[in-house]
Specification:
Layout (H helix, E strand, L loop, with lengths): L21 E4 L4 E4 L1 H11 L5 E4 L2 H7 L8
Antiparallel strand pairs: 1-2, 1-3
């Protein structure tokens, strides 16, 4: 079962506790990542994820492109 509930400020990255913008649904459970850690770990979870909910586009809308923003 994949979750399509929008991520909120209460959803925290499993690596660093920053706000999560990516939900990775696995055959058993799920992981939440900030944009940085989602990019870092994407090669690892891409082949095993059953669904990836990527809301990183909200970063630009909510915070704009700041110094060091990369595409």
């Amino acid at each position: 079962m994949e979750s399509r509930t929008p991520l909120t400020a209460a959803d925290r990255c499993d690596r660093c506790n920053a706000q999560a913008y990516v939900r990775v649904v696995l055959p058993v459970g799920e992981l939440l990542f900030c944009a940085h850690h989602a990019r870092e770990h994407a090669p690892k979870f891409a082949s095993v994820a059953t669904h990836v909910q990527d809301e990183t586009d909200r970063l630009l809308a909510e915070h704009g492109a700041g110094p060091g923003a990369a595409g």
